[in-house]
Fold:
Amino acid sequence: MPQPARKTVDDFTHEYEQYEDIAESLLKRTHHRPSLAVICGSGLGGLADLLENPDAFNYEDIPYFPTSTVHGHVGRLVFGLLNGVTVVCMQGRFHFYEGYDMSKTTIPVRVFKLLGVHTVIVTNAAGGLNPEFKIGDIMLIKDHINMPGLAGNNPLMGQNDRRWGPRFVSLCGAYDRDLRELARNVATNLGLDEILREGVYTMVSGPCFETVSEAKAFRSLGSDCMGMSTAPEVIVARHCGLRVLGISLITNNVVQEHDSDDFPDHEAVLIVGKQRAHDLQRLISELIFRIADEYEGPATAVSDVKDDDDVHNGHNGKNGH
Ligand SMILES: O=P(O)(O)O[C@@H]1C[C@H](O)[C@@H](CO)O1
Ligand SMILES: Nc1nc2[nH]cnc2c(=O)[nH]1
Structure:
């Protein structure tokens, strides 16, 4: 009997039932029931290789999933145990510059929600703008500037399905303050204080790295580093009430001098990822243990409204201020 063709990302129309299809297809094929998810950034996917009792699914074998096209993003969803905690890892993410709609780059985040995940650790490789940052530093993201979003490319554009969350989402405190504090404590215990930073991540669409003038502009706006991902995933995660910890690995300095001979290079980004992999893996592995220990239970939504026409966007969530 011929097998039915796999439903591809081109067939995906964002219906709630399609996300359910994806989640069900995964839950049928693994006995793992993760409560935490990790999105691995460029060159940082080695973490997924550490999972015990892994069940790994190529993105090509998951209904409706986009596929990874970027070197350094293997393209697998891996379920398993990390430090005794059941997690699911994206070994490679989807980027807007790969040609996917912004809302399709974030499909896995809603699938995580349906799988029972309550917290997402989002990692990325980023270029440092803050002159105090060094290559190899690890930056906890405290906020973002979402350039594509400000220009009209927000993953929540279009009709809102209230089953995910409210029409209007507060992003105040999107990068959970308690989780950042926990991360600082864990980093101290692991002797990583010297390389731990905190700051603002700016997302640009890519695939071009920014010009010198753009870099200077973003620095003057208060940005500490620049990348090409993360913000859409965090928006969708907060919309459906997932708790978020964001971590950037500073893989290069963003050039801010017109006369500089320096230039960014993706291969160099991957090399720094490899060099810092061990420290990042220790940090994330310990954090996962602590989060599972201290934060079990669902995160509350950032904001809630009675219905989509309700203009009052009151806060009642853990992250609301
Ligand atoms: O997936 P992330 O955000 O870690 O990847 C960054 C941004 C580009 O995809 C790439 C540039 O080197 O690294
Ligand atoms: N936009 C941007 N993304 C990056 N990802 C890794 N390094 C960089 C960088 O310098 N700029």
